[in-house]
Structures
1.
Amino acid sequence: MLVRFWGTRGSLAVAPTAASIKGKIARALVAASGRSFADEGEAGAFVEGELDFATGGTYGGATTCVEIEADGDGSFILCDFGTGSREFGINAFGRMAQGHKRVYNVFMSHLHWDHIGGFPFFGPAFDPNSHIVIHSGHADAEQAFRRQQEEISFPVAFDWLRAKIEFVTLTPGESYRIGGVNVEVMEQQHSHVSYGYRFTDDAGKTAIFSTDSEHKIESMEGEADVAAFFRDADLVVCDTMYSLADAVSMKEDWGHSSNIVAIDICHEAGAKRLALFHHEPVYSDDDIQRMHKESIRYEELTRRDQPLEVLCAYDGLEVRL
Amino acid sequence: MDWAEEARDGAIIALPNGKIDESSAQDFGTKLEEAVAHASEAAAKLVVDCSGISYMSSRGLRALTLAKRKADGAGVKILLAAPNGIVREILAISRYDKLFGVTDTLEGALAA
C-alpha cells in the first residue's frame, strides 16, 4: 500500500510569497558557504542532503487530499476533495491514458469547503468515461457538492459534469469492501460531524485517515475508542493542527486536534507511523518544521515499548507501507 | 500514581508521584480538583510540586486544564513547581508553559 499526499493544509489553501522564496534562497546560499556546483543535479543533491526541509522544500499549501494506492480492484482510492485534488486529477489523467481503471472511490471526512473545494477543478469529473463514487457518512453530501457549483458561486453547474457520479452513504461502525480494500468508518467530533476511515488491504497493511476530529477535554475516556480504531495501523494520518494549549483554550470547539494527543493515541494503539496533517494555514514552513521536531521529541520522551515514527505530511509526500 | 498534600506558607502543596498517563490521569484529575477545593476553603493558592512526576502525557496536561477551570471559578491560583527536565520539555512542547506559571523550585512557587 502506498499513501500519497496531494494536499495537507487545513481550512484554507495557501501559497508561498516572493519574500518567503527569497528567504529560502538566501539561507541556502549562506549554507553553501561559497561552494560552486557543476550543474543543477549537483546543486539538487546539496539541497537534498544538506538543507533542512523548510529551507530546501515546502510543506505546500493545497488543502486536504490523500490518495491510497492499494492492490485492490484497480480503482483510485481518494480521501477528500480539497484543492490538492486538482493536481491529483491531472496526474490521474496520465495514469488513465496508460490504462488505469477510470473508477474513483472517494471517502469524505466531511463537507467543509477545504475538503470539497477542489472538486469543481477535478478534471476527471468532466470525463464521460470516468465513474466517481463519493462515499460519506453524511446523507447530505450531494447537496454540499451541488451547492458549491450553483451559479452564484461557480460558473460550471454540477449537472454539466459528464462523469458518472454517485453518492453513497456509509454507516459508522460498519465494515465495507470497497475498491478491493476493507473499509471501516468512525464518527468524529467536528462541526456537522466528520468521519474517519480505516483502510486495510489484502496484505494486511492498514492506513487510517482521521482529520478534522476534535478530542474533547470533557470526554478523554472516549479516546480509548479512537485508539481501538487506530489499532496496530501501519500509518495514521491525523489532524494535528494546533498546539495542545491552543486546542484546550482559545481554539477549543474549533474541531481540531493537537500533535501531543495524536501521538498519545497512536502510542496507545500500537500504531507504527503517524503523519502530522491538516496544517494550520498561518504556519510557515519553519513553524511546521518546528512542530515536527517537537513532536519527534515528545514521542521519544513518552515512548512505550515500540517507537512511533513521526512523519510530517507535505504536498507530494509518498509513504510506502 | 501516589498523592500527598500539605498546607504551608499560604499554599496547599500537592505532591503527585509517578507517571501521569491514560492509566492514572483520571485519578490525578480527581485529586487535583479536590486540592483546588482545599485551597479554596483555605483561601490559599495551589502549588503542584512536579518534582515527583516522571512524565505527563496529554491526559495529565488536560487534567491540569480542567482543574484550572475549577480553580479560576473559585479564585484559586495554580502554579507548577520544580518539574524535572522531561516534564519541563513536555510543558514547552505542548505550550502549556504559556497557560500555567512554572517555577524552578517549590520555594519559588510559594514566594510567587
Note: The radius of gyration of chain A is 20 Å.
2.
Amino acid sequence: MSKPYSDPYLAGTGLGLTLLAAFALAGRGLGASGAFTSVAARFVDAPPLHRSDWLLFEIGGVFVGGFLSALAAGRFRLVLERAPRMALAFLGGAVMGLGAVLARGCTSGLALTGGALLSVGSWLFMIAAFAGAYLLAPLVKRAWR
Amino acid sequence: MITAIAIGIAFGWFLERAGLGNARKLAGQFYLTDLTVFKVMFSAIVTAMLGAFWLSRLGVLDLAAVYVPETYLLPQLAGGLLFGAGFVVAGLCPGTSCVAAATGRGDGALVMLGMFAGVLVTGLAFAPLAAFYESSAQGSLTFPQLLRVPYGVVVFGVVAIALSMFAAAERWERRAQ
Amino acid sequence: MRRALAAIAATGGVLALLAGSPYPLDVQRLAKAVAREDDHVTAVELAAWIRGRKPGLRIIDLRTPAEFKDYHLPRAENVAIDALTSTPFRSDETIVLVSGAGGHAAQGWVFLQALGHRNVFFLRGGQDEWLEAMKQQPEIGRYFGGVRRRDGC
C-alpha cells in the first residue's frame, strides 16, 4: 500500500528551500519549459528558442527526484489513461507550449522563481494562468470524471 | 552542472511528495476540490522570498546577483491565459509532467510530447508573433520598483496575503466536508 | 507543525518591514570595481552612447536646478543627491551620474550600488570634463550643437 502524500505546506517549504538553494548556488531559479525549448532549439532556429544546458541537467534531475520519491513511497505504477484523456493531455501540453514560449517561462520559471523574486511579469503570468484555467475548467469538467 | 542535477532532484522529489505528479489531483485545484497546487506553490514562493530577502539582508547571499525573470506585460498576460487553459486540459504543467512520466504515468509522457510539439510549432511559426513577443518589455521590473516602496514592505504584503489565503483555503476544505 | 511554519513566516514578514534594504553593501566588490575603472565613463564614451542611442540610457544630473538650467547634457534629468535613492530605476537601464566635477556623482554611484543597481556609472570629470571634451574634440562639439545649450531643448 502506498504512503499518503506529504503535507502540502511542508512539501511547499521544501520546494521553496530548493529554489533558495538555486539562488544561492547558481544565481538563478528553477525552470521546466526552458528545457523543452532547449531541446526544440536543436531542431528549429528561432529567436524565442533559447538553449540552456543548465535546464537540461536540472530537468534530468527532476525525473530522478520524482522517480526516487515515488519509489520510496511505493507510488511507482505504470498507468495509461483512456484515449480521450491521453489526447487531451497532448493537446493541453501543446497549448502550454505556446503559452510558455510567449511568456518566456512556466509555473516553475515564472510563477515560482519570478514570484519569489517579486517580478511583476511573473505575478501577472501566474494570475493570468490561474484565470485561464478557472475560466476553461467548466468546459472540460466532463473529461475529469 | 552537478548543482543543476542536484537541484532538479530536490525539485522533482518535493513535487512528487506533494502528489503533484498526478493530473487528477492537480486538476482538482480548478474545481476547488483539492487546493494542493495553491498551497504548495505559495508555500514555496513565501519560503524562497523570505529566505532570499533575509539571507541577502544578513550578507550571506547577493540578491542583486540573482537573475530576476524579465517582464513583458502583454506576452506574459496572453501566454499566461493560454498556459492556464492548457494546464486545466492537461492536468499537468511542464515540471509536473516530467514527474508524472517519471512515476510511470502515461499521460505525463503525452503532456511532455504535446509541450514539445507546441514549442516546436511556435518556433516554426514565430515570424507573425515576433512583434507581439517583443512588446511591452520592462526589463527585470520588480514590485518594489514599480510601487516605489521598500522591498521589505512588499515582502510583508506577500506574506500577509499568503497566510490569509492559506487560512481561507483551510476553511474552504473543512466546509466541503 | 503548520502553526510553526506560519509563525516563522509571519515573523519573517513583519521584521522585513523594519529591516531596510536587502541589497548588501559589499565594499570589497565596490573597491575592486573602482580599481578596475568599471565605475565610470569618460565624456568621449558617454558621447558615443548618446550618439549611438544606447537603449535604456538615463543621464542623471545631480547639480542644483540653477546650474542645470544654465546648461545640461542632452536628455539629462535633474535629480537632487538626496532624492537619488528614492528615484526608481529599472535594471535594464544604464544610469550615468553627472555632477559638476564628478564628486557627487561618484558618491551617488556608491549609493545606487548599495541599493542593488549594477548598471551604474558616473562621468569621471563631471560636467567640466564634458565641456572640455566638446571644446577639444570638435566632432563631438558639432554633433551636440555647439557649446552652450539652454534648458527646453
Note: Residues 151-175 of chain B form the longest helix (25 residues).
